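Every protein is a chain of amino acids, and every chain bends into a shape of its own. The protein below has been through that process, and both of its lines are reproduced in full.
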Amino acid sequence: MASASKNKAILFEVVPAVGAAISGTLAATGIAINYLLPITVLASSIAAVASILNPNKSHQEHLSAAKSFTALKHDARFLKDSLSEKLNDDAFVVAVENLHSRYSELLKASPPTNKKSFNNARKIIQDGIHEPDRDDAGNLL
């Protein structure tokens, strides 16, 4: 999801801005003004709309959510592998409840995933391209 958003951001922000800069410079120097002026206006308009819509925002939101979910996964693994034997039952319950609260808040704050990205991720998992983390005995972590 984040990579698709980044590609859209490049397409709608960078390409028109560079096109407007190049064609504007060439038009200002007097080279083929009649041909480049409409291109400059169009590219500038697209760049202006893109700066308002901010397609890069979606990329940043999805990237941040992915990093947050990964950090939560590592914290849960650390709790299970390193702290579970050191904590008494009550302290362990509190730690798990804290992880659950963080997970719930992260779900609320995460941007929605479109159907295409969801189905792509599902296919990757079903095809075995993405394997869940396992310990040396083959148990799921």
Q: What stands out?
A: The chain has a mean pLDDT of 82.
